[in-house]
């Protein structure tokens, strides 16, 4: 088998897209390994993900020839190598459970990532009990006055390392609108709440005060409005009256870790397509 | 075994409450069948529920003698018969899945209720496919101008039927503050959303627009602020990008029915105690 | 829009199937509304479900012309009308929560069924609290000696009513191997257990004895080996030490009702394809 | 506040136990912080857990004086320090996700443990990507011929380190009956299956073959019959037809890690009492 590719695309829905795309691949010797499509009848939009073995046709040939077809349908599209690890920059503050979880999944080969940088507004000692190995650690403290420079430095590191994905793994700083725009579509945040239930700070304390019976977490793309970006994945669990805010924080760690890891996996496998403020998620 | 009783109480926490209450029951020949307590260390409040066989001591004796002990601790308390069906008034609008569900549970003996009235702002035909049997049905239409009279009539029916619990089973009218106050602590609403996520009207459409990946429902006591009453029970389920608002409404029906039924059961079994804007729920 | 159709098919996987099928539909003016495929790489089998608007091409034309394509790939396939209610025979014994649930979903238009018969080994009075309306009720008691005749009568009723689906809604009789074979692929059972956890009789009591912390239910196609048919849907819930067998039975009713209803919906929408002893389930 | 204690007890149920126990504590200046009881009406057994501040009464005084009360009721009982970390020996084979998870929870102070030994039948390199810090690692390979000696050495290490709890964190060796008996009540295993669904080897592959729609994991006390010990905690998740055995293994890792960690937490907090082959679990 040749190196598998993943084609993702979206466009206005009209008859024949599936036929044209699948015929395009078949005519070039491609063999579909997995395919999903979604016809959004409410917005008349079409979304597709195809994982395929390109056979003898070189990737660049497929790319250049598909461009013409894509033009016909005014598609947004992407052709990616399925098995190439993605270069990932992870940002963290003092709570490193999501970081530790991502690193473990990387080390055992579960998450196809190559961590190229860890950035924190706190010094390395703040997460002293986690083994970050040889991954470069950048301590970039931030104050109101230095935020612009700090964010510029973050962009530099992302550029220098060719980071394809930025993961905010409980990075407790709000990105500026410009920074959010710069990383648009390739920056995932874990919001430690079941959005839109409790936005803003200390959501577990808010949840306790309100007396809810479930808590959750939300992984979403970062946009200028931090708590309003397109949601990729959410999960929730039951809680009870005896759960103190501290207990909610403890339970929340588990939910946050697994929701973020799942969102990162879905993104890396090119399974998440944007549909306005919503997402289309093609699970396997 | 004598007829089992349920004692529920709350007061400021201090040493010796459990000892005094359990000794009180033991000295009168009572035998505890089930007991729970909750020491709320954040508010220094104490909550207890005891289900017991009173042996040979008459219920009235226990009630009058316990009053003295309750005074000592400045308790709020209640002594109830465990197995006596509660008289329940159910209010409904056009969607009757919660009503149908409650009636089925009543008919097979699962819910210990005696439905004494069904009140709707729509005529009987609106829920024509549900068999309400011999339960009196009251069609009480409501407009802005007639709301006061309509609510007065609802209170009359509740009084005439000795209704102990009012269940808003998808009753799509907001109670006036006065009405909410009148039924305080004995009126349960099912909010067709995972509070506080989407308050107000059409929460499933809001959820769709926001692109969340889970929906839920919340059963809560009715207070003047309709979406802010103490929550008794919540549940949620995963949804996907292909779920239209109509699909969310369909999935929501199942969640709403079972969340409301569970909240009603917990309330009827005297398992729900108020703790400010929060609830203590003693599951069996 | 013409009347939507659903095409389902399975065959050995090989390159070009998607291209051929989608081109076939496009060339005849068909417009895909929803499509899913599954390439089972472990068994090299291919499964597809396409919901489409056939445009001006008559259904019979599509059917006859697709037959040729299907032959090329040695497909098993089916072309169905999406919105035509399916004729359903429901079998029940003494516990009618699943029956009541299915009938409610039918009455409010949620489940696209036309109930053509209710068959029970108990008399109508056994389910006296459920309104079966005008649906013919057949009391067919069964003993070891009369089982063959009773099953023959069940087949007759199914034939006379053109029942397309037989739902065993807590029908507590084991079908003979011959009967199971006769209804193969169109008979769904709800097993009141999380298969394969507790096969056989009284699974909730078995679960209690074993001290498990979750219970569930399984909807599956009926085969000669009753507890081993292909599973369509399962769900489970947490339980605790205080849950008696009776409480498990109560909690089980809710799980059973919703698991069976979901399986019936999936089947009726042609979303379930057989893959040996397993199923492929194309959710919307 | 003095150092909090936890009293757990079980005995035949009879009137007055709660009164006697709570009065005992009150008379000695004890202040209850949390208390639960369970009257098992099916077996007429009584279970209780009380977390309390002993005030000025020394722990040893409480212990010796309670012994007399315990005798009266023929109780099995234990008096433990709530906040003292428990000495834990962790056994592992090649898959170390549960080990890594437990160590992370220990390092951030979530789990009140003191890891005193890691024992593996594989060399340290097998779990090379996990930082075990200064915890002694014992490589104890085992073959059929050396099993007796290996188990003796495990017992020695447990004795030398005063291990109070032995956690089988995906230790893929079956303990001999004698070894299981030796560690009875203080050895927890994570079974990578939703017991009793798939006992024995390769449960995820069994689950795949059977085509189930949910997988789960079970944490239980080890007994001579490995898959039949009293279950402490279970959880499950939905899977689909596209999940290969490898995907099930991946999803299983998450479930296993959190189910085992929760069971260990419940055990360490003295929240799990044995009730024959079942457990009573007093959640907070």
TrEMBL record, chains A, B, C, D:
Pfam families with a match to the protein in the record: ACT, Formyl_trans_N
Active site: 227
Enzyme Commission code: 3.5.1.10
TM regions (residue ranges): none
Keywords, sorted A to Z: Hydrolase, One-carbon metabolism, Purine biosynthesis
An example Gene Ontology biological process: 'de novo' IMP biosynthetic process
Record carries keyword rRNA-binding: no
Reactions this protein catalyses: (6R)-10-formyltetrahydrofolate + H2O = (6S)-5,6,7,8-tetrahydrofolate + formate + H(+)
MF terms in GO: formyltetrahydrofolate deformylase activity
ACT domain location: 6-84
Pathway membership: Purine metabolism; IMP biosynthesis via de novo pathway; formate from 10-formyl-5,6,7,8-tetrahydrofolate: step 1/1
PROSITE patterns in alphabetical order: ACT
Family from the record: Belongs to the PurU family.
Function: Catalyzes the hydrolysis of 10-formyltetrahydrofolate (formyl-FH4) to formate and tetrahydrofolate (FH4).
Protein name: Formyltetrahydrofolate deformylase
Species, as recorded: Qipengyuania flava
């Amino acid at each position: 088998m040749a190196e598998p590719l993943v084609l993702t695309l979206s466009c206005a829905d009209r008859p024949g897209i599936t036929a044209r795309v699948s015929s395009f691949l078949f005519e070039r010797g491609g063999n579909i390994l997995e395919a999903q499509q979604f016809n959004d009848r409410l917005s008349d939009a079409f979304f597709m993900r195809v994982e395929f073995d390109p056979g003898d046709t070189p990737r660049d040939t497929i790319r250049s020839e598909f461009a013409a077809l894509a033009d016909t349908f005014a598609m947004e599209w992407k052709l990616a190598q399925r098995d190439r690890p993605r270069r990932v920059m992870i940002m963290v503050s003092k709570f490193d459970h999501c970081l530790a979880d991502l690193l473990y999944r990387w080390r055992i080969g579960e998450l196809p990532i190559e961590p190229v940088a860890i950035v924190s507004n706190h010094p390395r000692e703040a997460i002293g009990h986690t083994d970050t190995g040889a991954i470069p650690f950048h301590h970039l403290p931030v104050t109101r006055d230095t935020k612009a420079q700090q964010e510029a430095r973050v962009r530099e590191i992302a550029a220098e390392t060719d980071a394809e994905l930025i993961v905010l793994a409980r990075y407790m700083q709000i990105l500026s609108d410009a920074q959010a725009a710069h990383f648009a579509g390739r920056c995932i945040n874990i919001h430690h709440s079941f959005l839109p239930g409790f936005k803003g700070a200390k959501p577990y304390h808010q949840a306790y005060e309100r007396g809810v019976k479930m808590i959750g977490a939300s992984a979403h793309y970062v946009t200028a409005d931090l708590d309003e970006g397109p949601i990729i994945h959410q999960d929730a669990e039951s809680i009870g009256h005896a759960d103190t805010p501290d207990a909610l924080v403890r339970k929340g760690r588990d939910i946050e870790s697994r929701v973020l890891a799942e969102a990162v996996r879905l993104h890396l496998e090119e399974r998440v397509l944007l549909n306005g403020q919503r997402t289309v998620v093609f699970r396997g």
